Amino acid sequence: MAGEVWVFAEQRNNVIQDVSVELLNPGRKIADELGVNLCSVLLGHNLGNLPDELIEYGADRVYVVEHRHT
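-> structure tokens emitted (70 positions)
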């Protein structure tokens, strides 16, 4: 089966919020049951190493949506 399980990652001031890490755990379980990748979606600007942190927390892939406030 092709596909992905997506988990939204909330960040504030370039800090991943605890709820995002907590949601990766059930997301991983679902992704493993389906045999697909667990992906995280991260929005923000100048996010530094936050995508790498999400990988360390268990995401297989991180989609970054670059957004700068105007």
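The two ends are 41 Å apart (CA to CA).
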